[in-house]
Amino acid sequence: MLGQAKRLYELNSLFNSKEEDKESTKIISFSSGKGGTGKSFVSSNIAYQMASNGLRVLLIDFDINLSNLGTIFNTNSKKNLYHYFNYDYNLEDVILNYSENLNLILGESGRSDHPELTEEKVNLFLSELNNISHNYDLILIDTASGIDKSTLQILHNSAEVMIVTTSEPTSVMDAYVIVKMLKSNSSKAQINVIINKTFDQNEGQIAFENLEKAVSHFLKIKVKYAGNISFSQEVVKSIQNQTLLVKTEKSPEIFTQLEALSSKLSIPTIG
């Protein structure tokens, strides 16, 4: 284990190094205005599906003190982002190998002594993430719900943002707030919208159009419709059983929808 003084020195050296010209792997972040939209279900299943298709994927749970990706994947790690932000380990040290092409970085849950995520700490995290990005074809970040400063910092530094919402008016309004905050911070990220838990395809399309009209009228920017995911008891069961739905392929409809969503992300081709 590194001493904290040595760890701080290494991080500051990394942060101050000249990495501007280094090509980095694309970061795609998953965000939602509130909990319960299914954001983590979407990000985890898409990550596994992409890895199964041959892409080298790193999935990061950036809901660092209310982490749930470990539960979804039915796995855990003794080293996670709590230890990283406490300056105990390098970022590479907290990576958990889940499968041949899929690595995870998990968060912690319910620690009263969790270190505060300052702007500097998040910038150091992004710098170190850039430093290891050559090991992956794609980096996915599952952010905390809502739009606190650290989450906004992550979204601002992402190439694409996938906003996961439902068709409920309050959830659509929360998605609008995320778009508004991204614009107010001059984000250059491509903004995509996923409508989850729909009862038919038309429901998802209508919800997106309502959001799009508000965004276009008031914010004068464009958002893309990535698609919808149907409400399904198989999704509920997969979460309860801590088994990825795309791993079991018990719901062909949801599997197809997740595959369609994956194909719309701007990802590198293999070969």
Protein model, in words:
By secondary structure, this protein is α/β, with parallel strands linked by helices. It has a single domain (26-264), classed as Rossmann fold, CATH 3.40.50. The protein has helices spanning 4-16, 39-52, 69-72, 81-85, 119-132, 149-156, 169-184, 201-219, 233-240, 245-248, 252-264, and strands at 27-31, 57-62, 96-97, 102-105, 138-143, 160-165, 190-198, 224-230. Strands 3-4-2-5-1-6-7-8 form an eight-stranded mixed β-sheet, with helices on both faces. The longest helix is centred in the last third of the chain and has 19 residues, at 201-219. The relative contact order is 0.17.
Query: Which class do the helix and strand fractions yield?
Result: alpha/beta
CATH topology: Rossmann fold
The succession of helices and strands, N to C, reads HEHEHHEEHEHEHEHEHHH
CATH architecture: 3-Layer(aba) Sandwich
The fourth-level CATH homologous superfamily is P-loop containing nucleotide triphosphate hydrolases
Q: pLDDT average, as an integer?
A: 90
Q: Give the biggest sheet.
A: 8 strands, mixed
Neighbour order of strands in the largest sheet: 3-4-2-5-1-6-7-8
CA-based shape: globular
Query: Any idea how many domains?
Result: 1
Low-confidence stretches at least 5 residues in length (pLDDT < 50)? 17-22
Percent helix? 40-55%
Instruction: Give the radius of gyration.
Output: 18 Å
Instruction: Please report the distance between the alpha carbons of the first and last residues.
Output: 39 Å
Helical run tally: 11
